Amino acid sequence: MESSREKLSAFLEKHLHDFLTHWRRHMYISEDDKYINHIEQNGIAVFQLVKEALEGSLQPSEIQALAEKVAKQRAEANINMGEFVYNTNFGRSLVIRYALKSGLPIEDLQLLVDDINYLFDQFLFYAITKYTELKNAEIQEKNLFISQSHKDRLTLLGQMSSSFVHEFRNPLTAIMGFVQLLKFEHPNLKYLDIIDHELQQLKFRISQFLHASRKETKEQQKGVIFLEQLLEEIIAFLYPSFVEADVEISSSIDPEASVYGFKDQLKQVFMNILLNSIEAVKEKDKPRQIYIRVSANQEHVHVVISNNGPMIPKETVQAIFEPFFTTKKLGTGIGLYVCKKIIEDHDGQITCTSSEQLTSFAISLPLKKENSLPV
């Protein structure tokens, strides 16, 4: 005698054409779906799984194999997975609707419908899991490509800057030498101080590129650096810029705060941050203020350079140390990147915070005492 499972399987097979016609009419299909001709075949394949489940001959591996095949097609077609889920669940509802028309006793149908639902749930689980896995791998591959492209750009920057900047260094050194000679021979000659200051600024910018290309480290010698002396030298050097921008600068520096490292590199960091601070406060009305605070504990020296310029947006703060990132029309985007690199090379950390009141760059460096210097 024919069982309820066999009767339902035969009934659904008999109405397969009607089922597929209804399903095609109401499903969602993108016109640019590269696998559009496979969708009906996949629907028929799922229908065959339903029949095998009803007949008791279905293997779980068959569900997974078909689900992963369809998921791969959906991923390659780059189509919204929501369409697939909708079409699958719509097919499920049609199968159940036709099952209810089979005339089988309701108590038999309840068990069979549970089996059908379980099949579709398993199918969707395997398909979505595989789709997610494939998309995550695709994203990872794209991120790897972006990361490699980013490294290639940095390599190109190093190659370009080391060759391009060295072409400027020799004539710049000669010009600076002749300016010093003119200052000695004609101490009252106008504008020499301004020319000298601008040439020093240019030398500073060249040093940024040279450090980015890692060409200068071997030319320098490490030593003990007292930050009070270093920062006073920098403030004196930048004094014309403070006056021009009408900036008030105040400082509180622990005279015992010292670090062990490359003086020129750390000078480059503090100068870059101070120059950026001057540019920032120019964008607001007076008073324009910059604060320098240096303190030391038993382990670290903490330097905080703050300004009362406009607040930096949160998304900008998060990217401010990335190479090539700049908000300036003529900026190169390497200044703060080089600062971060120098500080990290000195086993330190640099961070930026910004509010409506203050924007601060905080630097932490290992404290070096006389009895802790390398032998």
The CATH topology of the largest domain: Heat Shock Protein 90
Per CATH, the architecture of the largest domain is 2-Layer Sandwich
Q: Report the top-level CATH class of the largest domain.
A: Alpha Beta
Give the class from helix and strand content and strand pairing.
alpha+beta
Domain tally: 3
Number of helices: 12
Kindly report how far apart the N and C termini lie: 97 Å
The tally of strands reads 7
How much strand?
5-15%
Provide a brief overview of the structure:
InterPro entries: HATPase_C_sf, HATPase_dom, His_kinase_dom, HisK_dim/P_dom, HisK_dim/P_sf, Histidine_kinase_N, Sig_transdc_His_kin-like_C. This protein has 375 residues and is α+β, with helices and mostly antiparallel strands. It has helices at residues 4-14, 16-26, 39-55, 60-77, 81-100, 106-185, 192-212, 227-237, 239-245, 263-281, 314-319, 335-345; strands at residues 223-226, 247-253, 258-261, 288-296, 300-307, 349-354, 359-366.
Structural summary, described in words:
The longest helix has 80 residues, at 106-185. Strand 6 (349-354) and strand 7 form a beta hairpin. The protein folds into three domains: 4-145, Histidine kinase N-terminal domain (Globin-like); 155-211; 224-372, Histidine kinase-like ATPase, C-terminal domain (Heat Shock Protein 90, 2-Layer Sandwich), CATH 3.30.565. The model is unreliable at 371-375 (pLDDT under 50). Helix 1 (4-14) runs antiparallel to helix 3 and helix 6 (106-185) runs antiparallel to helix 7 (192-212). The protein has a five-stranded mixed sheet. Strands 1-3 form a two-stranded antiparallel ribbon. The chain is built from twelve helices and seven strands. The protein has helices at 4-14, 16-26, 39-55, 60-77, 81-100, 106-185, 192-212, 227-237, 239-245, 263-281, 314-319, 335-345; strands spanning 223-226, 247-253, 258-261, 288-296, 300-307, 349-354, 359-366. The chain is an alpha+beta fold. It is 62% helix and 12% strand.
